[in-house]
Design a protein that fits this description.
By secondary structure, the chain is of the alpha/beta class. It has one domain: NAD(P)-binding Rossmann-like Domain (Rossmann fold). It is 43% helix and 17% strand. Strands 3-2-1-4-5-6-7 form a seven-stranded parallel sheet, sandwiched between helices. The radius of gyration is 17 Å and the shape is globular. Belongs to the short-chain dehydrogenases/reductases (SDR) family.
């Protein structure tokens, strides 16, 4: 029997990259999947087509909007009647050091990376079934010994995510809900590689013992574990998935 048969998962940022790979992986394990996406209509439809319209739904919306989170949950309940897995995968990766961060940069990044997951969880919890799973996304860069100054704004948001996981494990545990985070290392996604030259990417690869970037599918394997019954005694944890980088 598929490990997630009878389960319904919501995944934000589900039309590409790690979100898409996770949607396909959970569907392979038997879950019905609702993805939220911002603008990639073609990618979202590809996910639905791959899984099948009876078992998948794509909802257009902004992960940083509380109103759109309400709509996402409403659509999921109308389509499938329940929510068992909540994966707040959508994210923004601004390259901003202290001197070059505007107030708008700060607000936009916080909205997508912190406010969005925070209120998505708040809105979803009343509808989550017993033994539900919540998974957030951090980054291995929170744990490496050296980090480049332009990652300041991004890492400020991911530090907040890790503290949310730590505290919400205590808050949601009595309800039988687990919450964990996956902290990927450099991963071969459009968001990560955008604007980076081959030389820069090769330098990054040299920092990883296996000498390569991770793949979205490899990150999705960890998402699948945290979504499964096998992770029932794991909560409040951050799993670094980075090929030994940190």
């Amino acid at each position: 029997m598929a490990a997630l048969a009878g389960k319904v998962a919501i995944i934000t940022g589900g039309s590409k990259g790690i979100g898409k790979a996770t949607a396909l992986r959970l569907a392979h394990d038997g879950a019905k999947v609702v993805i939220q996406y911002l603008s990639d209509d073609k990618g979202a439809q590809e996910v639905v087509n791959a899984i099948g319209e009876q078992n998948a739904l794509a909802v257009k919306g902004n992960a940083g909007s509380v109103a759109d989170s309400d709509e996402l949950i409403r659509h999921a309940l109308e389509k499938f009647g329940q929510i068992d897995i909540l994966i707040a995968n959508a994210g923004s990766l601004p390259i901003r050091d202290l001197a070059n961060t505007s107030e708008q940069d700060f607000n936009d990044c916080m909205d997508t990376n912190v406010k969005g997951p925070y209120f998505l969880i708040q809105k979803a919890v009343p509808h989550l079934r017993p033994a539900a799973r919540i998974i957030l996304v951090s980054t291995t860069l929170c744990h490496v010994s050296t980090v480049s100054p332009p990652y300041l704004l991004y890492l400020a948001t991911k530090g907040a995510i890790e503290q949310m996981v730590r505290v919400l494990a205590k808050d949601l545990g009595p309800k039988g809900i687990t919450i964990n985070a996956v902290a990927p290392g450099p991963t071969d996604t459009e968001m990560f590689t955008r604007g980076k030259s081959e030389s820069v990417l090769n330098t990054i690869k040299s920092l990883i013992p296996q000498g390569r970037l991770g793949t979205p599918e490899e990150i999705a394997e960890s998402m699948a574990f945290f979504s499964s019954p096998a992770s029932g005694w794991v909560s409040g944890q951050v799993l670094r998935v980075n090929g030994g980088m940190a």
